[in-house]
Amino acid sequence: MMSSVKQNQQQSSFHTLFSLRGSLLTLAILTLLSFTYLSLKYSTPSSQGPESVNVKVVDAGKNEEEDDGGDEFGDVYHSPRVFKLNFAEMEKKFKVYIYPDGDSKTFYQTPRKLTGKYASEGYFFQNIRESRFRTLDPDEAHLFFIPISCHKMRGKGTSYENMTIIVQNYVESLISKYPYWNRTLGADHFFVTCHDVGVRATEGLPLLVKNSIRAVCSPSYDVGFIPHKDVALPQVLQPFALPAGGNDVENRTSLGFWAGHRNSKIRVILARVWENDTELDISNNRISRATGHLVYQKRFYSTKFCICPGGSQVNSARIADSIHYGCIPV
Ligand SMILES: *[C@@H]1O[C@H](CO)[C@@H](O)[C@H](O)[C@H]1NC(C)=O
Ligand SMILES: *[C@@H]1O[C@H](CO)[C@@H](O)[C@H](O)[C@H]1NC(C)=O
Ligand SMILES: *[C@@H]1O[C@H](CO)[C@@H](O)[C@H](O)[C@H]1NC(C)=O
Ligand SMILES: *[C@@H]1O[C@H](CO)[C@@H](O)[C@H](O)[C@H]1NC(C)=O
Fold first, then answer.
1. Where, per UniProt, does this protein localize (predicted)?
2. CA of residue 252 to ligand 3 center, whole Å
3. Within this chain, do residues 122 and 225 fall inside the same structural domain, yes or no?
4. 243 lines ligand 3 (CB under 6 A)
C-alpha cells in the first residue's frame, strides 16, 4: 500500500517534470518551425518547393487598429492579426519529413540519452519524431530533417576525422537517393547539434553549413552562426536538481540574481555597476552547482528575474534553469 502510493507520487512528479522539459523543447521547435515556415513562405517563389503552399496572406493594411488592443500579442508584432492568422495556417499545414535512412543503432534517429548537458539534442530528436508536424510523405513536406546525432557518435568514441567522413557519406547518400536536396541545395533541410563536435563533423559538406538550417546549442562562439538561417537551441542540464518553481511572486524577494565568473566584458560591467545594489542578488563569484544543499539552484527560487549574461563561452544552461525554477530569464 505504502509503496504503491510512493510509486504514484514518483510517477506523477516524473510526469510534471517530463512535460515541463517537453514543453521547453517543443517551444524551441515551434519557434524554429514557425520562423522557417514564415521566412520560406515569403522568400521562395511559389513555383518552387512542395506544391502550392496556398496560404492566404491577409491584407495587413486593413482593420489593423481595430483588433490589436487587449490582446497578448499586442505589442510584440507589427501586425498581430496577420501574424496570428499565418501562425494558425502554419499549425494546420506545416510538415516536416525525417529521412528514414541510417541504422538507428548507430548515429541516426535515436538520441543517445536524455541526460547531461547535451540533453537538448536528445529531446529535439524525440519531440520531432512524435510531433504532429511530422509527415511520412516527403512530397507534402516543407522541411527535411537530417537525423544524425553527433553527440551519439562522440559517445561511441568516433574520431573527429571519421565523424566528418560519416556525416559526409550519409548526407551525400541522401542527396543522390532523393530529389529533395537538389531542389534548394539544402536550404529546406535542417539538423540539430548540441555539441561543438557536431559543427566540426559537418565541415566536409560546405553546403550543409552554408545553406541548411542548423539548430545549435553550441558551447563556443566560433561556430560561424549564421543569424538569418541558424537557430539557437537553449541548453538544458538534465536532470534538474530541484523541483520546478511556482508562480509565487511573494516569495521572490530579490529583483534579479546572477552568480558567475566575470569572464566577458558584459559580466565585468554588470558586476561593477550592480554588485552593491540592494535590490539585486549579484554574487562576487561563481557558485558551484554542487555546493552543499544546492545553494546555487535555491537562489533561483527567491528572485523575480534571472540575469543570463553572455560569458566567454556560449555554453550555459542558465536560461532553461531560470524557466524551470520560475524566474524570468533576462
Ligand atoms: C576511423 O575509420 C577507420 C576506417 O573505417 C577505422 O579503421 C578506424 O578505426 C576509425 N577510427 C576511429 C577512432 O573511429
Ligand atoms: C543531385 O545533384 C548531384 C550533383 O549535381 C548529383 O550527383 C545527384 O545525383 C543529384 N541527385 C538526384 C537525386 O538527382
Ligand atoms: C512561500 O514560502 C513559504 C515558506 O517556504 C511556503 O510555505 C509557501 O507555500 C510559499 N508560497 C508559494 C505561493 O509557493
Ligand atoms: C561595493 O562595495 C565594496 C565594499 O564596500 C567596494 O569595494 C566597491 O567599490 C563597491 N562597488 C561599487 C560599484 O560601488
1. Golgi apparatus membrane
2. 10
3. yes
4. no
Query: Domain range spanning residue 325?
Result: 249-329
pLDDT digits 0-9 by tens, 235-265: 888 888 889 998 888 999 999 999 888 888 8
Rounded Cα distance between 224 and 215, Å, is 13
Which residues are CB-contacts of 214 (< 8 A; sequence separation ≥ 6)?
190, 191, 192, 193, 199, 202, 225, 226, 229, 230, 231
For 146, the grid coordinates are: 537530417
- 174 plus 255 within the same structural domain: no
Q: Considering all CA atoms of the chain, what is the largest pairwise distance in Å, rounded to the nearest integer? A: 65
| CB of 276 sitting under 6 A from ligand 4 | yes
172 C-beta closer than 6 A to ligand 2: no
Taking CA atoms only, the protein residue closest to ligand 3 atom 1 is 251
C-alpha cell at position 65? 487598429
Instruction: Dump pLDDT digits (tens) for 105-129.
Output: 666 656 556 777 778 888 888 889 8
In terms of Cβ atoms closer than 10 Å to its own Cβ (0-12, 13-18, 19+), residue 29 is: buried
Q: Which of 232, 264, 284 is the last residue of a domain?
A: 232
Distance (Å, rounded) from C-alpha 300 to C-alpha 276?
A: 19
Nearest CA owner, ligand 3 atom 13: 248
